[in-house]
Amino acid sequence: EAKKEGKNDFRFFTDDLNTKMHQRLALETSLHHALENNEFLLYYQPQVDTATGEIIGMEALIRWQRADGSIVPPLAFIPSLEDSGLIVSVGEWVLETACRDAKLMSDKAGRDLTLSVNISARQFSRSDIVEHIAFILEETGLKPESLRLELTESLLMGDTESTLERLHKLKELGISLSIDDFGTGYSSLSYLKKLPISELKIDRAFVKNVPENKSDAVIVNTIITIAQCLDLNVVAEGVETEEQRQFLEKQKCPTFQGFLFSKPLPLEQFTKLLPSPAAKSQ
Ligand code: C2E
Ligand code: MG
Ligand code: MG
Ligand code: MG
Question: What is the rounded distance in angstroms from the CA atom of residue 171 to the CA atom of residue 195?
């Protein structure tokens, strides 16, 4: 009897595995088509001066608009893009599109806005990544100083010689580097000193419950202090309330990003948030 049950369990297990594998392949196939059919698009979320509310830049965030019009969020397909290697081509598209859009936005605003782009580990590992980024900057006319790459702690901690070399080359080009979701990974503080980075992004998970939650308040405060001491910029992610913004302002966090100011928006709507230079001088 027990044996019979065991067999059934095994069959259920393999059926389940088959279903998962099938779903995974189906998703990969759809993502191939998505790239071919231009179904990816970029949203932009403003990064603002905590004290004045002025927009100083934006983060490009990918979306997948399916043929039926529905919008798929990145966490539902980025892992599959990574597994299949498609992230390399999609990442190229993201960089090129975002740099072109950012050039337009800076021209419209009459000042330089900083564009932040997320780079996945697999994408960063291609050997010609630096040359590729340099080429895109040249092609789009965006200044290297206006581009900031958001890298994860795990990418940075996989500290091979080539990673470090690439980071230094990017910095030499004038591009700045940011550690995304800071505090959620395993970075050791000694790395912060060694890596040519210029910004820490405080993960949304820590910002969520400030100022009420005392340990989160201490963590946020500590990250801001580390950034100040190492002369790094710091951005708080996921700011949703005025209380959170006030807390950050008091702690001297210069920049934030979050629904309080704006959700990520399609280019056209984002552009409407930018005061035009003409309007400013009136
Ligand atoms: P991330 O880089 O940490 O981006 C911030 C995420 O927090 C975005 O989610 C943004 O919409 C969300 N967010 C910002 N402010 C708030 C807020 O006030 N409240 C809440 N609840 N959420 C807020 P999104 O757009 O779904 O992106 C999720 C993740 O997908 C990103 O996290 C990033 O890791 C990845 N991703 C997005 N676009 C790209 C891309 O072009 N390339 C790569 N490699 N990864 C990307
Ligand atoms: Mg990011
Ligand atoms: Mg982040
Ligand atoms: Mg995050």
Answer: 10
